[in-house]
Amino acid sequence: MQTFAYQRPASLADAARAAAGAEAKLIAGGQSLLGAMKLGLAAPDTLIDLHSIPDLQAIKVEPGKVTVGAMCTHATVAAHKELAAAIPALAFLAGNIGDRQVRNVGTIGGSLANNDPAACYPAAVLGLGATVHTNTRSIAADDFFKGLYETALQDGEIITAVSFPVPEKAGWQKFKQPASRFSLVGVFVSKGSAGVRVAVTGAGAGVFRVKALEDKLAASWSAAACAGVEVSADGLNTDLHGSAEYRASLIPVLAGRAVAAS
């Protein structure tokens, strides 16, 4: 691994100033960044550790809304009783990310900033119509995810929290790759004040919504409504784990299971 400087700012303002460096990288859990550095895919001259900023570590449950600090680990989200009571599907998703080590180190902010095409959290954020808050602005989920490892974040912008509207119903199911536990295909469904949303991860270059399933579920919130819905394989991933057509066929099946579990 290459040589780099290390900073651990105590405030968000200090972190933002440090992140202004052209080759600086923010580190949250480090589950993706450190691996990329070991492989030579990332070579920052400075790492800015966000662990000492208490404002990024809180979970707040209010009527109709749950706000999760960017530095909350997956294990923290999964174990939070008030969050689990408000949005059970979100706690379930967090509790099934990776393995125990990943869940106790990885963070929601790090996952969203990295935007791995097979990550679980992007499906929850898009599937619930959440809002990503940064040190400079708030970004709607539909505007946040831009493509393969690409988001709307600008250089030096820091995710501070994510606010989730509490839905009437929500469910999550994933068909996981057994070694990595990433989603070969994962589907998050929700029904709330903004209507029905269906978000898919693992199948394409990034998380996306499926309007055909949303329309069917808006008419009838039932597993049966997902049966027979055809999802195009165009643009979906083909690899040694499954073809694009296989992934396309999994989407309505998992959507139905998510609805049944909601």
Sum this structure up briefly.
The chain has 262 residues and is α+β, with helices and mostly antiparallel strands. The chain contains twelve helices and 14 strands. β6 and β7 form a beta hairpin.
Can you describe what's shown?
GO terms for molecular function: FAD binding; oxidoreductase activity. This is Carbon-monoxide dehydrogenase medium subunit. With 262 residues, the protein is α+β, with helices and mostly antiparallel strands. The chain has a domain of 93 residues: 2-Layer Sandwich (Enolase-like, domain 1). 34% of the residues lie in helices and 25% in strands. The protein has 12 helices and 14 strands. It has a 5-stranded antiparallel beta sheet with strand order 4-5-10-6-7. α2 links the parallel β2 and β3. The chain is globular. It starts with a strand and ends with a helix. The model has no long low-confidence stretch (mean pLDDT 92).
Mean pLDDT: 92
Terminal Cα separation, in Å?
A: 45 Å
Work out the helicity level: 25-40%
Which term fits the overall shape?
globular
The gyration radius over C-alpha positions equals: 18 Å
Low-pLDDT residue intervals, each spanning 5 or more residues = none
CATH fold-level assignment of the domain at 169-261: Enolase-like, domain 1
Structural class: alpha+beta
Give me the number of helical elements: 12
Q: CATH homologous superfamily of the domain at 169-261, by name?
A: CO dehydrogenase flavoprotein, C-terminal domain
CATH architecture of the domain at 169-261: 2-Layer Sandwich
The first-level CATH class name of the domain at 169-261: Alpha Beta
Task: Give the H and E element order.
Answer: EHEHEEEHHHHHHEEHEEEEEEEHHH
| Biggest sheet features | 5 strands, antiparallel
Strand content: 25-35%
Widest sheet: strand order?
4-5-10-6-7
Number of strands: 14
